[in-house]
Amino acid sequence: MIEIRDLVVRAGGRVISSVPELDLAAGRCTALVGESGSGKTTALLATLGLVEGAEVTGRVTVCGTEVLTASERALRDLRGAKAALVMQSPQAALNPVMRLGTLMRRALARHGVKGAAARARAHEAVSAVLLDPAVLRRYPHQVSGGQAQRFALALALALGADVIAADEPTSALDVTVQAEVVAVLRRLRDERGLALLLVSHDLALVSTVADDVVVMKDGRVVESGPTARVLTEPAHPYTRDLVAAVPRLKEVEL
Ligand SMILES: Nc1ncnc2c1ncn2[C@@H]1O[C@H](COP(=O)(O)OP(=O)(O)OP(=O)(O)O)[C@@H](O)[C@H]1O
């Protein structure tokens, strides 16, 4: 679903993010972790061809599209349907004067799905993210952060996404709501076979959803591999520090 080779993003004469190799298959989740400014979000955005004001080199293939050389049109097609980006606070990105159902129907209509088929698709998608379909009658300000986050995932599902790229999907949420979103992410990965690329500084979250982790520091990958291995036997001193800084990680089943 995602194949990255020698991705390098340069700005202001320095490398702000580089990922030599990353392979993400259907039904799997890879998390990019590391301190603030380590280049995680830039790598995520570069994967979907969304980096602006910086030079991007290398090869990135998402759902068969060569992102770095694709036309704007091909990129729009990719991002509109097969690969969705879910940002930290999706509420802010939702049109405030439109009910969620209208928003979803309009998005589906742009993909030629209308009427009863669109209603059925919308209901099915919100149910898949464990939301009550009644949420479709609400306006963005009438739903919680966790519901908005799950709605963003439902929208991606309704449009037929195979890949979801999510930037800090739970950091704006309180702990109980975080658990709901994590449960939904796992479900999408396991039951729908979605490929998830996550950016998160939350190693507890990462340990419960990610199959593989990529640890970044100062724009470079310092370590990567299966989550259970990297978090229990970190090879790099920086990863060791990251793990040591999260006491509750020890309680999480890896
Ligand atoms: N277009 C750009 N031009 C110049 N510098 C940039 C650009 N985009 C990002 N940067 C810088 O690159 C570095 C990496 O940023 P990035 O947002 O990828 O880090 P991050 O690991 O996601 O951090 P955070 O967890 O705080 O979001 C930062 O120092 C940022 O200021």
UniProtKB/TrEMBL annotation:
The keyword Nucleotide-binding appears for this protein: yes
Gene Ontology CC annotation, any one: plasma membrane
InterPro entries: AAA+_ATPase, ABC_Ni/Peptide_Import, ABC_transporter-like_ATP-bd, ABC_transporter-like_CS, Oligopep_ABC_C, P-loop_NTPase
Domain ABC transporter: 2-243
Main localisation: membrane
Subcellular location: Cell membrane
Listed PROSITE patterns: ABC_TRANSPORTER_1 (PS00211), ABC_TRANSPORTER_2 (PS50893)
A GO MF term: ATP hydrolysis activity
Family per record: Belongs to the ABC transporter superfamily.
Name of the protein in question: Peptide/nickel transport system ATP-binding protein/peptide/nickel transport system ATP-binding protein
Organism encoding this protein: Sinosporangium album
